Amino acid sequence: MRIVRLLVVVGCLCCGAACNGPLTPEAEKLLESGRLAYKQGDDNGAVRKMDLFLKDWAKSRQADEAYYYRGLAKYRTHNLPGAREDLQAALDRTRRKAVRVGAMVALGDLAYDTDDTAAAEKVYLDVLKDIDRDKKPADHVCYRLGCTLQRQGRWKDADAYFDKVIYLFNGTELAGRAQQHVRCKAWTIQAGAFEAKPRADAAAAALRREGLDASSQPALRDGKPVFLVNVGRYPTFRQAAADLSKVRRHCNDAFVTTTR
Q: Which end of the chain is more exposed for a tag (fewer CB within 10 A), N or C?
């Protein structure tokens, strides 16, 4: 009996050493397959593979990456509590800048998506201390920080970050989106975008017949003129979001956005 117990203890110690030591070729292959699954959009596959990896290698130096990619995969499948837990685990364990920055950006995005603007602002500001302001992901962080500040009603503060994106990343998609938000002062619900003014006018008129405060307005998108159908003008994001369901009864892809 004493020999059996001793063998069990030795076995446990060996397992612990393996988990803390270099990865086996099989473990390296499993980690790589999980990473590849995520990059190919197979989120469920990525979660399964990282589950298997972390079952035996949660104490390894590479566990930070497994938690990171599993968290990102859970985020894309809308498992927000699981995503937050894994991304924080990656952040707590990592010594690698790429993983640290990636996890922080994702945690900021998660906070923004759940309308926790105070947490999102703090995380984005912390990220900016850790990265070059003229290189990715600074464009994404500054853009999202601008959106976060607008949700708080801090319009001028938001403009400073949108201006950074427009100036430092000129010609990119995010710079174009920043152009749409900069100098805005209120919220509206966009219920359509048309190339021809008569179609926009007709759509707005149809919504007004349903009792909605709709209008068509000219705008530029990618340097081309378009006509937007907007409903209402709201001083706060939450007021606009509260009315979104009313508009979606008539336009199921309507969304809340900013307006000048």
A: N
CB of 202 within 8 A of CB of 214? no
Three-state DSSP class for 260? coil
Same domain flag for 121 and 95: yes
Length of the chain: 260
* pTM for the full predicted model: 0.88
Q: Which residues contact 204 (CB under 8 A, 6 or more apart)?
A: 214, 215, 216, 229
Residue 15 belongs to a domain: no
* 3 state DSSP class of 21: coil
Q: From CA 38, how far away is CA 49, in angstroms rounded?
A: 10
> In terms of domains, do 87 and 122 share one?
yes
Q: Phi, psi (5° rounding) for residue 198? A: -60, -35
Structure tokens at 52: 């298997």
Supply 205's token pair. Answer: 């008129």
Q: Tell me, what CATH number does 155's domain have?
A: 1.25.40.10
Amino acid identity, position 153: G
What is the per-residue pLDDT across 133-156, written as a single tens digit (0 to 9) for each? Answer: 999 999 999 999 999 999 999 999
Do the beta carbons of residue 179 and residue 166 sit within 8 Å? Answer: yes
Tell which of 121, 145, 180 closes a domain.
Answer: 180
pLDDT in tens, 40-79: 999 999 999 999 999 999 999 999 999 999 999 999 999 9
At 1-45, the pLDDT tens digits run 333 333 333 333 334 434 667 999 999 999 999 999 999 999 999
Which helix H or strand E contains 213, and what residues bound it? Answer: none
Number of compact structural domains in the chain = 2
Closest CA to 229 of 201, 249, 257, 250: 201
